[in-house]
Design goal:
Radius of gyration: 26 Å
Structural class: mainly beta
Low-confidence stretches: 1-10, 13-26
CATH topology: Maltoporin, Chain A
Strand content: over 45%
Number of domains: 1
Helix content: under 10%
Number of helices: 7
CATH architecture: Beta Barrel
CATH class: Mainly Beta
Number of strands: 42
Shape: globular
CATH superfamily: TonB-dependent receptor, beta-barrel domain
């Protein structure tokens, strides 16, 4: 399918080209980036993997404030941004190369300095980030568990001999204010270094709640980060780093498209909506019914220690250990309609109808306060040889432990649901060998063996000591084989084959029947070929990757209706999927004054074996969903940017930059009926800077595109289709005798156009 905006996406760089050509050309090279995607420092262009990496300066230029913004210019990477809580249990679910999921832990893991960070990463301050690496394809061989589709590693800033002190301020519409303070340098030159960072951020939100007229979507964060590095002698270093975060957010700006919008399959029990969801201008949420628990209250702490020892014979011993802890409460109206506030026992438009005693609106079960306490710890020890030698190797051991308690509190008469403590214990051994067959041809083999013990301990819901702990153990072997051929020092081709493994899960809700307790582990084989190139003396970069993924026993969601009323999602295994894709990155220093870039990704992700015996037969006449696209996956992504620099007086320079990104539609679920629509975001910025200060004026979402980042299949709990009700559209009267809830769809309200100003001082 051709992209729907060829003229609009072309006008942006053409305008900037005209401005750039006003100055005589002077050639310059593109910036080189050094990454650690294979547990060693190497040039990005030398890594035989598909990696998108961005330095602190590049993130600032692009106006990237969090990981969601990074998806705009990273091919093959998307993110479900409902709010900063994340999704169920407060986890993040980034999607790399179409490997999406709706419940459970994500298929891609976020790391901070190599330490797992399983909380939502959206409130982590980018001002303290030195570099972001998005590593695509399974990374279990070197990074460990939860890297089924890839890994995202954020490397924080550290101190050095050259001091840096800065104050950064952002002022923008909708009460968007952020202040960052950073200081780093040496305490003792060449021996002892420090970094300290503080941040305060607040945001009022862009939308209003129709029930009380107040703003929704507001956010507030206070962050403190620090590190200290000690190098007492040559050959030894230790870096202790950490941070604390305090988040206090309002109700998330989420709206629900009610059942009256349904426009297809109206003769089925639940009905459906086909096409792009409708644009919404606000939300209807029961803030008062949450009794002061509304929004996100979260306090998080991270701490890590990395030690490096240089040993004889070119060996290096590296230890990296860390912990992450968070306590949070998230209060929200899960009807997304203010159902309790509008009448706990009544149904609008159905005179005389009284909700049943077990109806979750009547009991208050739709107003929820999720309380989570998560602690995770990991430690890794690895020994590696000289990575520049013709034959090189690495061996290591890894241990990870996670404990997460989750309970769902309600109001009125609905009882608390204790989901218990989810436990994960992971023990692994890994290694790699590499050999240069010639000075141009390299082969590498990597392997990890891991044991995952996954359990759920729930002495409240399962008081019998023999039943309190549900537990399974999963073993996995994850290999990766890579070969690389250097055509020239700046041009290479590579191929790799890797196996991915994702452990099984336990559906912890104690109300589920025994047969729904668990889902089996997933496996995938990933095949990739690619080429990385720098041409014209480093002025042009061109990278291309082609891949194929064979995915078995995929974990997907289904809905279970309890005999006493109410529904709950759970995880089960599908038969299989296949994903074929291509990723392209181009960047050019056209002149010393003008740089431009383009990215594109094509992701063809389909189910090859999937049957649904719930709704599919009524919708399609068959349970088979073979050939349907995977949910939450954009088939096409693209971005383009251009930046022009020019002199302003004798000691200052100015710039004008434009960024445009395209995100294809994302389907809500496995039926491929409702979707987000296509999103086109255009950002413009202009600024003036010198060695000591910088001022930038920006406009985000210039054309005010309101396409949501995701859409989720749901139910209409407010507008029950009962005999007392007569729809204005008779076709929406439900199937006679049906007692199920009609389909509805919820989605986050998209960020509006926003004008802002950033200022930064260095001293």
């Amino acid at each position: 399918m051709p992209l729907p905006y060829p003229r609009r996406i072309a006008t942006l760089p053409l305008a900037l080209v005209a401005l750039a050509l006003a100055s005589p050309p002077a050639w310059s090279q593109l910036e080189e980036i050094v990454v650690t995607a294979r547990k060693q420092e190497e040039r990005l262009q030398d890594v035989p993997l598909s990696v998108s990496a961005f330095t602190s300066e590049q993130l600032t230029e692009r106006g990237a404030r969090d990981m969601f913004d990074v998806t705009r210019f990273t091919p093959g990477f998307s993110f479900e941004k409902v709010n900063r809580y994340g999704v169920q249990g407060g986890v993040s679910r980034p999607v790399i190369r179409g490997m999406s999921n709706i419940l459970g832990e994500g298929n891609a893991q976020v790391f901070i300095d190599g330490i797992p960070y399983s909380d939502s990463v959206l409130s982590f301050p980018f001002d303290v980030v030195e570099r972001v690496e998005v590593i695509k394809g399974p990374q279990a061989a070197l990074f460990g568990r939860s890297t089924f589709s890839g890994a995202i590693n954020l490397i924080t800033k550290k101190g050095g001999n050259v001091p840096e002190h800065s104050v950064g301020v952002r002022l923008a519409e909708y009460g968007d204010t952020e202040v960052n303070l950073l200081s780093r340098g040496s305490i003792v030159d060449d021996k002892l270094f420090y970094m300290v960072h503080g941040r305060y951020y607040t945001y009022d939100g862009m939308y209003r709640n129709t029930l009380d007229g107040g703003k929704i979507g507001g956010e507030e964060s206070t962050n403190f980060n620090a590190s200290i590095e000690w190098r007492p002698v040559d050959g030894f270093s230790a870096i202790l780093s950490g941070g604390v975060t305090r988040d206090r957010d309002d109700l998330a700006a989420i709206t629900l498209q009610e059942r009256f919008a349904n426009n297809c399959y109206l003769d089925t029990a639940r009905q459906y909506y086909c096409g792009e969801v409708l644009e919404a201008h606000g939300a209807t949420l029961d803030r008062a019914g949450l009794n002061g628990t509304d929004g996100l209250h979260r306090d998080s702490t991270r701490l890590s220690l990395q030690m490096t020892f240089d040993l004889p014979a070119g060996l290096t011993l590296i230890s990296n250990s860390g912990l992450f802890s968070t306590e949070m409460e998230y209060g929200y109206d899960s009807s997304y309609q203010g159902a309790v506030a509008l009448g706990a026992t009544t149904v609008p438009g159905a005179p005389g109808y009284v909700r049943t005693a077990t109806d979750p609106v009547r009991t208050g079960g739709v107003n929820r306060n999720e309380v989570t306490d998560r602690d995770e710890w990991s430690t890794e020890l690895r020994l590696q040889s000289d990575q520049q030698a013709r034959f090189r190797y690495m061996i290591g051991a890894y241990y990870y432990q996670s404990q997460r308690w989750l309970e769902e509190r309600h109001f009125l008469t609905a009882p608390t649901v204790y989901s218990g403590e989810a436990r994960v214990d992971n023990v692994a051994a890994f290694g790699s060998i590499g050999f240069d067959i010639t000075d141009r041809w390299e082969v590498t083999a990597e392997l990890r063996y891991a044991e995952d013990t996954i359990g759920n301990f729930n002495p409240i819901a399962r008081p019998n000591p023999d039943d309190s702990l549900q537990e399974n153990t999963f073993d996995s072997v994850s290999p990766r084989f890579t070969t690389t051929f250097k055509i020239t020092p700046e041009n290479m081709v590579y191929a790799n084959v890797a196996k991915g493994n994702k452990p099984g899960v336990i559906n912890a809700d104690p109300r589920f029947p025994p047969e729904l307790c668990c889902a089996d582990e997933e496996e995938s084989w990933n095949y990739e070929i690619g080429t990385k190139n720098r041409f014209l003396d480093g002025r042009l970069m061109a990278n291309l990757a082609l891949y194929y993924i064979d995915w078995k026993d995929q974990q997907i969601t289904s809905s279970y209706t309890f005999p006493t009323g109410g529904t709950q999602s759970y995880i089960r295994n599908a038969g299989g999927s296949e994903i074929k894709g291509a990723e392209l990155e181009l960047e050019a220093a056209v002149t010393d004054n003008f740089t431009a870039g383009l990215t594109y990704a094509l992701t063809d992700a389909k189910f090859t074996e999937l049957e649904d015996f719930g709704e599919a037969p009524g919708l399609f006449g068959s349970p088979s969903l073979n050939g349907k696209k995977l949910f939450g996956v954009p088939e096409q992504q693209a971005s383009v940017y251009g930046k022009v620099k020019f002199a302003v007086g004798a000691d200052k320079s100015g710039f004008v930059r434009g960024d445009m990104s395209y995100m294809d539609r994302k389907y809500d679920q496995i039926f491929n009926l409702a979707h987000t629509g296509e999103q086109i975001l255009t950002n413009l910025s202009a600024g003036v800077e010198n060695d000591r200060w910088a001022v930038t004026l920006y406009i985000n979402n210039v054309f005010d595109d309101r396409t949501p980042s995701s859409v989720t299949r749901y139910v209409d709990q407010l507008n029950l289709n009962v005999p007392q009700y007569t729809n204005a559209n008779p076709a929406q009267n439900n199937v006679p005798g049906s007692t199920t809830l009609e389909r509805a769809f919820f989605y986050p309200l998209a960020a509006k156009r926003q004008v802002g100003l950033t200022m930064k001082w260095k001293f």
